[in-house]
Amino acid sequence: MQTVPDTNLIQFEGWTLRIRESKDSAPRLLLMIHGITGDENSMWVFARDLPAHYWIVAPRAPYTAEPGGYSWRPAQFGNLDGPSLEWLRQSAEALIRLVDAYSASVKIDASTFDVMGFSQGAAMSNVLAFLYPQRIRKTGILAGFVPRGLEELVSQRPLEGKPFFVAHGTKDEKVTVERARASIALLEQAGAKVTYCEDDVAHKVSVNCLRALKEFLSD
To answer: Could you say which of 24, 77, 156, 159 would form a disulfide bridge with 192 (CB–CB 3.0 to 4.6 Å)?
Structure first.
């Protein structure tokens, strides 16, 4: 099993979580959401050198995925165009309950928190930001997309003034760069302030974009 230094693996109310605690007097919670076939260990490559004030929570998704790992939606047969709001809403609601229960248990303020996700986890991050804009301060979308179903909320401008960081690769064959650019247009129509980093890579985050992500989360 992959090990992640300076973190703890815990069980909490039916969830498997990997946690990096903060000794800061007023820590900010960062929720990291893995992609399909990932788990609670997958996102930590993006967390290296993030500010010490972040209390980081990386949960394992509740559904099993094929050929292994975990998913934020139940098994769905058909095309691989990505999950819709309908398929992700239940997990989004569960994540908000998790944040509330966990933050209360460790006595940190998570009335607002930051979130970042990769691929399917980025789609989930978008769902959280659209459905719970009052809870999400900053959002990182890594090799992801806006799921179908959220377009209906765009005209309400739920993301007014919200900072978003989007990283995508021009060689991404799982989530095309065209879809990423279309998703950015939706985010901006919904009111988000988007910082976009595009690089010549596949379904991953480039070194340059990773550096830009850390800058985005530096405050």
So the answer is: 159
Closest CA to 20 of 12, 34, 9, 35: 9
Q: What is the pLDDT of residues 12-62, one digit of tens each?
A: 999 999 999 999 999 999 999 999 999 999 999 999 889 999 999 999 999
**Domain extent at residue 23:** 8-216
179 contacts 198 by C-beta, under 8 angstroms: no
Is residue 81 pLDDT above 70, yes or no? no
Q: Give me the number of domains the chain comprises.
A: 1
- Residue 97 belongs to a domain: yes
Which residues are within 8 A (CB) of 211 and not within 5 positions of it... i.e. 6 or more apart?
Answer: none
Would 183 be classed as within a structural domain? yes
Say if 1 falls within a structural domain.
no
Lowest pLDDT segment from 20-29, 69-78, 148-157, 169-178: 69-78
Three-state SS across 40-85? Answer: CCHHHHHCCCCCCCEEEEEECCCEECCCCCEECCCCCCCCCCCCCH
Helix (H, G, I), strand (E, B) or coil at 20: strand
116 belongs to a structural domain:
yes
